[in-house]
Amino acid sequence: MAHSFPGEVLEHVFSFIHSDQDRNAVSLVCKSWYEIERWCRRRIFVGNCYAVSPMIMIRRFPEVRSLELKGKPHFADYNLVPEGWGGYAYPWIAAMARAYPGLEEIRLKRMVVTDDTLELISRSFKNFKVLVLSSCEGFTTDGLAVIAANCRNLRELDLQESEVNDLSGHWLSHFPETCTSLVSLNIACLGSEVSSLALERLVARSPNLRTLRLNCAVPLERLPNLLRRAPQLVELGTGAYSAEVRPDVLSNLAGAFSGCTKLKGLSGFWDVVPAYLPAIYSICSGLTFLNLSYSNIQSPDLTMLVSHCHNLQRLWVLDYIEDSGLEALAGSCKDLQELRVFPSDPFDADPNVSLTEQGLVSVSEGCPKLQSVLYFCRQMSNAALVSIARNRPNLTRFRLCIIEPRSPDYLTREPLDTGFGAIVKHCKELLRLSLSGLLTDRVFEYIGTHAKKLEMLSVAFAGDSDLGLHHMLSGCESLRKLEIRDCPFGDKALLANAAKLETMRSLWMSSCFVSFGACKLLSQKMPRLNVEVIDERGPPDSRPESCPVEKLYIYRTVGGPRFDLPGFVWTDG
Amino acid sequence: MEGTLSLLGTGGGGGPSSGGSTTGSMSTVSMEDNLVLSSEVSSSYPDESELELGLGLNCGGGGGALKSKPAATPAPRVQYARILTAKDFPSLVAKSSSSSSSSSSSSVTKANTSVGTKRTADSFAPAPNAVSGQVVGWPPIRAQRMNCLVNQMKSPATEEFNSTGQKSKIRNGAANNANNGSEKNINNAKEIVHIKTSLFVKVNMDGIPIGRKVDLNAQSCYVTLAQTLEDMFYRPTTTAIGARRSSMEEHDQMIEATEPSKLLDGSSEFVLTYEDKEGDWMLVGDVPWGMFLSSVKRLRIMRTSEANGLAPRFQGRNGNQIKEKEREKLLNGESILLE
């Protein structure tokens, strides 16, 4: 049957299949399909750079054009992974430099990227087009200069939230005059000033530029020039949004914005002077994404702004918006799909703004398409959570952070088990969940019973016993990533569910009760897992085996043990 | 102790009831320090008072993490405005929490009398006044965002101790917005200086291959920085706080003022240096904190033997003479109001 179609026909058919899951399924049909598929797969996604080695990837897929690679575990974002743990991009780039001269796209997340790596990229891939470095670190602006200078067909340079050693802004001037291919440029994470002239000329000669995210060093006065040179922009991140209030600046800015009729997304807004906000009113109705989470705009101005944005789908904002602003949002933005509310003052136990659970409840009532929530607040109740769950059974991502660890229901003083239980019970398509507040083992029972589609779960300061962990591991069928900190979970549940770990991408546990002995046992029994004990107190052998480890990172792998372990990571064999 | 608490009353909504005792020995450091502590710190973490003493002796406030509450006494007192220093945080290690968690679950699943639950909830939820940012990596906010927020709260110039004032300005701004709208905001915006990005700097210590990173904006002054670094490198555990606390519980004493400054005063085998924007290596501690923040690129804990070429400290500079006086006061246990 497989021979009735010539390979080229099958290949042509496969070229319409893009998702990794579908491609994986295709490759399992029979040997010839496996062969054809592997020769024509162009995009690879590796969710954990240590799950597979570059060699294995190259051996199986000889003609790759695009690689997406992730390194450190998610909790590295919150400083829980010590410096030097790993996630080095260089070995991957070096291997691909030899094997994939036609590579066009590299997307890295939470990886260590050095200037040497960037230099290698710029030299090795003649048709290189896309470089996305998301939450990466280890490189300087010198490395960026090399990319700018040598990648003749560069379309995308996105430094999203990376930590760059910013030596100077001069690197931007390394884009040659012949470079006219830029589609997306994101330098928001950089601190240094880039030459305004160089930037304007670059923008002017990039007719395909759709995304431009400036850094805070670009002054507001230069923004109109940039906008006028790029009226086709779809996504804009402003620089500093403050200047002395002058009517001519305001009208210039407003005029420039009104020319950008295609703008759909706005971000930036560092350091806002509210008098300049009206400059964007003319394009607000076209906006689908608005990121104000770095700006100190207060509730009335926020409310005013948001009420102009009737077609808003995604809003990121600080808690300055307050319950009143969220209520206004619920009234005016009926297409809202994603809401993220970040805390303006995370380290004060007392609230500095009037943002409570009520804001989220309002939005859940008023916005029928709401699917994705990230919400920081200081109080929550079971009643509110139940309301939210009932209002929005279509939620797919629910991340709630009650700032004080172990905060109970502020009305009843009870744990929030019932509330989160309602979330997992009603929201049957829930993919991602982050818990907070006072929680007993009971909430994990609910999660294990109901959260069947859940793929990623984050747990902190919760639970009473191993039973909690057991419920999660044994009940959540779709679980891929589980990250736990400061919970009383230990050996029993982990060992009892060892097999489950091979079905997941990774498990992170820090400040829990897993003993070194259990880690050793797990490592011996499960050769296809890497069990990393991250412990900065010195060799675990110097302590009793029953002693709990500081941090534990377990992930499935076909790449075998790591060769690049730092001194504070202990693995068996 | 109880008397101290009642002077101030309980700080803020839901503060620890006066029944909660601030145990652990409060040494002879100024009462004013204790007052500040008692009003703000959870009763479950008594040793923090001792930690406080070591810190409080010199540094004025840092960023506005703690609301400074007006003291009942008119005596000059240190303004505390700490942001997160992993150092002096109540240890929320699972170990200590689990015992309370298990007691909680049993009470919860029992009769569920309101008294029972209430007590339970209080007994292991950290008292609401405890600064929740006192745990590594909590609340879960990315470093870049954190830096941004912190920068919004204070000016990177010299007014560490004015930052709480700024914060209240921001709050007042919020409250008065209805009336004055943009005008007030412009004023606030002017006060909020331009946001700097990442203030995480690398720290390397001679002889240790693995470097660390420290968030300078989470420090309020040189002393807290030095202590944080000491914990990172001399007692490298995430529960470094626990280590220091437990050792203090044993010795039942306040932190000697000299101890935290080992890296700063040249009495140890190592000395703290930094590379500034011009690429020069300087001794840490010579310039005002704000100036240091704006010029530091990275830190190095250098062997004293290697530090000979660096600019000497304490030589005929006004700033350093003031430092000497402060240091004396530290040792004498006086609290000082900076400026």
UniProtKB/TrEMBL annotation, chain A:
Pathway the protein takes part in: Protein modification; protein ubiquitination
Keywords per UniProt: Auxin signaling pathway, Developmental protein, Nucleus, Ubl conjugation pathway
Classification lineage: Eukaryota, Viridiplantae, Streptophyta, Embryophyta, Tracheophyta
UniProt name for this protein: F-box domain-containing protein
Primary residence: nucleus
Subcellular location: Nucleus
Keyword DNA-binding: no
A single GO molecular function term of this UniProt record: auxin binding
From TrEMBL, chain B:
Keyword hit for Cell inner membrane: no
Domain of life the protein comes from: Eukaryota
Listed Gly residues bias regions: 9-22
Primary residence: nucleus
Residues covered by the PB1 domain: 198-306
GO biological process: auxin-activated signaling pathway; regulation of DNA-templated transcription
GO cellular component: nucleus
UniProt feature, compositional bias: Low complexity: 96-107, 172-182
Listed Polar residues bias regions: 108-117
Keyword Repressor attached: yes
Compartments reported by the entry: Nucleus
Sequence segments annotated as region (Disordered): 1-33, 94-129, 160-182
Subunit text: Homodimers and heterodimers.
Known role: Aux/IAA proteins are short-lived transcriptional factors that function as repressors of early auxin response genes at low auxin concentrations.
Family: Belongs to the Aux/IAA family.
Protein name, per record: Auxin-responsive protein
Source organism: Nyssa sinensis
